[in-house]
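Long-time lurker, first post. I've been practising inverse folding by hand and with some scripts of my own, and I keep getting stuck on stretches where the structure tokens seem ambiguous. Below is the full token string for one chain I'm working on. Before anyone asks, I'm not after the true native sequence, just a reasonable design that respects the backbone. If someone could post their per-position residues I'd love to compare against what I wrote down in my notebook.
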């Protein structure tokens, strides 16, 4: 079979079919990638690649940050940080109409900063905030929609495991990617809070105002925010300030979160063992997906699919920005079918070479004459942030919407269709954020340029 596009299409169809029959994504990618290499070049090449491929993938130093941040998130869950965050945000915002929902968004952003996982953020904050939203008679749509949307903040607000993996794939600087994600993440928080304010202005009964906290409660809850602020400040401040690299920063975060849990008495041997086992399972899954993604990358490259696709796009006469829009739209659709990490690992090695070619190649170091009017390093940053945002959209997009399923499983008295209705306004403002970052790349690139200068 000589047509790269046809071969690639058949491979992707086979991959989706394997995922549809509930084969784990890592095994599906390994099966399709290995099978494709054997189809093209026989078993000798595959065996030759497998001799060193796994070691070469797993021994990358930058990837050692992944289990550290996963462990930090696991410890944060059992240490009670989520409760402290929501309680603190609620005493500041809960007195106004829709304020408890706004507090849930703020708490999701804070927890995402020490967790790095959207699904974990949605699950943990759902358990904490849902009872309070019910207590104040919030509508099912607004309550569940807010928590499902708030969960997506975990994937972008640094530190983010998916952002780290993306940086490794395209060989971007992790610190720079963290800096680039900060402003878009804060914009999302602001837009989500404004969305809730507009929602309750139109439907006041959907988000009644909560009671004002007493002076003692206000002081106690506000002081409860200090540990998260200190942890977040030391980890990210240490990275941005050059005190330590991301991997040592992750280790510092683990020690700080673990120490906080021990002082509070929330972490014992049993919790610690469970957190370590959960970290091992998640890390093993991620590394196995990395292996599968590398096999898929080798197969696609040897089939000539990225080169053929790049040539087809060049011949089509589409502008670079139009190509970017098409890619982002495709990522939204794919996000409905698979989890964010798997999708990033699968499609970025395919889409990135096309964008690189449109921008003038890997050695493009200036904006002059480049397709996207930026250097290769800046394109890595801009595309990465845009890709992660549209991956977020997949988590709240029907028919799959993993965050919606997680929240719906907790709020069984609210039909899933109501949750999708509640999440729709947040979906629309996310599209607005994508359009804003597409139109003004400087928003994403401001902090990286500041750090570089």
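-- Answer (accepted) --
I ran through it position by position. Result:
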């Amino acid at each position: 079979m000589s047509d790269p596009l046809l071969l690639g299409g058949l491979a992707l169809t086979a991959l989706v079919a394997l995922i549809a029959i509930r084969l784990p994504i890592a095994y599906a990618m390994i099966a399709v990638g290995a099978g494709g290499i054997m189809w093209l070049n026989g078993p000798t090449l595959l065996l030759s690649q497998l001799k060193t491929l796994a070691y070469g993938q797993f021994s990358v130093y930058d990837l050692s940050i992944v289990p550290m941040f996963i462990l930090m998130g696991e410890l944060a869950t059992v240490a009670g940080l989520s409760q402290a965050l929501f309680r603190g945000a609620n005493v500041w915002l809960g007195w106004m109409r829709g304020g408890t929902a706004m507090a849930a968004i703020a708490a999701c952003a804070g927890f995402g900063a020490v967790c790095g996982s959207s699904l974990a953020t949605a699950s943990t904050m759902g358990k904490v905030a849902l009872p309070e939203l019910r207590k104040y008679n919030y509508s099912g749509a607004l309550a569940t929609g807010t928590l499902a949307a708030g969960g997506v903040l975990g994937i972008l607000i640094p530190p983010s495991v998916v952002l780290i993996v993306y940086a490794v794939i395209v060989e971007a600087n992790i610190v720079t990617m963290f800096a680039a994600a900060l402003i878009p993440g804060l914009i999302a928080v602001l837009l989500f809070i404004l969305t809730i304010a507009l929602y309750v202005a139109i439907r006041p009964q959907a988000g009644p105002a909560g009671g004002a906290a007493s002076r003692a409660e206000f002081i106690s809850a506000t002081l409860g925010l200090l540990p998260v602020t200190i942890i977040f400040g030391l980890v990210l401040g240490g990275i941005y300030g050059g005190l330590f690299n991301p991997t040592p920063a992750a280790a510092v975060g683990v020690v700080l979160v673990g120490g906080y849990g021990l002082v509070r008495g929330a972490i014992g041997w049993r919790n610690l063992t469970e957190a370590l086992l959960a970290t091992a399972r998640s890390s093993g899954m991620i590394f196995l997906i990395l292996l599968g993604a590398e096999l898929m990358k080798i197969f696609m490259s040897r089939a000539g699919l990225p080169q053929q696709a790049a040539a087809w796009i060049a011949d089509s006469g589409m502008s670079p920005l139009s190509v970017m829009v098409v890619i982002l739209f495709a990522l939204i659709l794919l996000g409905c079918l698979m989890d964010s990490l798997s999708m990033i690992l699968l499609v970025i090695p395919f889409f990135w070479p096309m964008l690189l070619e449109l921008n003038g190649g890997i050695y493009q170091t200036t904006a002059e004459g480049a397709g996207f009017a930026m250097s290769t390093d800046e394109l890595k940053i801009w595309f990465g942030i845009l890709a992660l945002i549209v991956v977020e959209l997949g988590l709240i997009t029907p028919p799959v919407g993993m965050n919606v399923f997680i929240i719906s499983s907790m709020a069984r008295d609210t039909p899933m269709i109501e949750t999708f209705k509640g999440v729709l306004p947040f979906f629309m403002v996310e599209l607005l954020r994508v359009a804003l970052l597409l139109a003004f790349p400087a928003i994403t690139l401001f902090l990286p340029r500041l750090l570089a200068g």
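A couple of notes from the structure itself: The mean pLDDT is 84. The CA atoms of residues 147 and 385 lie 22 Å apart. Happy to go over any region you disagree with.
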